[in-house]
Design brief:
The protein is of the alpha+beta class and 121 residues long. It has one domain (30-116): mini-chromosome maintenance (MCM) complex, domain 2 (Sandwich), CATH 2.60.320. It is built from three helices and seven strands; from the N terminus they run αβββββαββα. It binds zinc ion. Zinc ion binds next to helix 2.
Length: 121
């Protein structure tokens, strides 16, 4: 093989590697995390792949992460819509509690999201 062939081959391998990373990254749930937003501030972020029960500071709201899904387990808001919203598991989805100004949002940790530009901050 000529020197040029090696370069083409190396480039191809690199390209396949990048493609795999992108495809893998999009399918992988482990890369997701849950953002807890109170008012306009992100007060905490939790990995979606770790089962936990989390009480939001300062408000009467508890979220539960289980099986890579998140839901509002307990809330003191009058309408209870956030609890009724059920479980979410996909990036970009969110549960909003209007009375308490709390947003529970799923985000991806991969920089791929920023490149794709699909997410509104
Ligand atoms: Zn609520």
């Amino acid at each position: 093989m000529k020197k040029g062939d090696y370069i083409v081959m190396a480039f191809s391998i690199l390209l396949v590697g990048v493609l795999c990373f992108f495809l893998y990254g999009q399918k992988k749930n482990e890369a997701l995390y849950v953002e807890i937003i109170v008012g306009n501030e992100v007060v905490d972020s939790l990995p979606l792949n770790q089962d936990t029960v989390y009480s939001v500071n300062g408000v009467d709201l508890t979220v539960k992460i289980e099986d890579k899904q998140v839901c509002v387990m307990d809330t003191g808001c009058p309408d209870g819509l956030c609890k009724a919203a059920g479980r979410i598991s996909q990036a970009g989805r969110s549960i909003i509690c209007l009375p308490q100004k709390v947003i529970v949002r799923i985000n991806g940790t991969f920089p791929v999201d920023a490149v794709a530009g699909g997410m509104c901050p």
